[in-house]
Amino acid sequence: MKKSKRDGHASAVEPAPASGKLKRPVYEQELEKLHGELVSLQRWVVHKGQKVCVIFEGRDGAGKGGTIKALTERVSPRVFRAVALPAPTEREKSQMYFQRYAAHLPAAGEVVVFDRSWYNRAGVERVMGFATEDQVKRFLDIAPNAEKMIVESGITLIKYWLEVSEEEQTRRMDARINDPRKLWKLSPMDLHSYERWHDYSRARDDMFLATDTSWAPWFVARSDDKRRLRLNIIHHLLSRIPYERVPSKPVKLPKRQAAPEHHGVDYPVKLVPELTWGAVNPPS
Questions:
Q1: What number of helices (H) and strands (E) belong to the chain?
Q2: Could you tell me which residues are beta bridge partners of residue 156?
Q3: Residue 252 burial (10 A CB sphere; 0-12, 13-18, 19+)
Q4: What residue segments make up the domains of the chain, in order of their start?
Q5: For the chain, which ranges sit under pLDDT 50?
Q6: pLDDT in tens, 136-168
Q7: Which residues are CB-contacts of 176 (< 8 A; sequence separation ≥ 6)?
Q8: CATH architecture of 21-240
């Protein structure tokens, strides 16, 4: 690891190499192939009763949500289950820390994808002062053993950290401010987090040092190019799971039933208006 000239702290992540953005046609072509492989993975997970848990961590604006969407948009939500927990309730705050996350771990035939996870304690809770340094230290001491128990229970655990540059994070935050479709992503907490770039860097590096184990290693993916990130993540995930093709019979549509003598009911159906889009404004 190299020392950062700005904060004097060991940095676990090198600056991203300069490269052109991946073009949309290439991205869509490659994503279609990977989606086909994810369907094969899904069939194998269900057929074999496998349990897979995938964790996505990273700063605000690193691309977690878009990556999870790309990963799950062509598979069954009953098999690939995305979990994004809200802030803990007062009751949950009084529980053992891992308790509310353990309830969402996969059962047989499931892939659970965490959009942030128990590592909130090592990241946002630490940086924003929601956890004491003693609580963070205890978490970092306990997490490797807790994850070893998860792995030994038969769960494949894969952890990703999405690394975004300062400049790209700023560009994405500005885009959220100016786009009504993205403004919901910009909470007061996001703004406070944005101010604490170097605090997050130190928290990230401490987390890597304490929890990057042989049974549950961290994988870092550069995320300045979102399209490249999504392809890299899905490809890597597929490479980490030794799935096999599940034999299946060819699918053929059956014949429809013979037309009945029923001619419908004279009922005043309420149709949705069919508008001429481009000539009208959406409802306010």
A1: 10, 7
A2: 52
A3: exposed
A4: 21-240
A5: 1-11, 15, 18
A6: 999 999 999 999 999 999 999 999 999 999 999
A7: 61, 182, 183, 185, 186
A8: 3-Layer(aba) Sandwich (3.40)
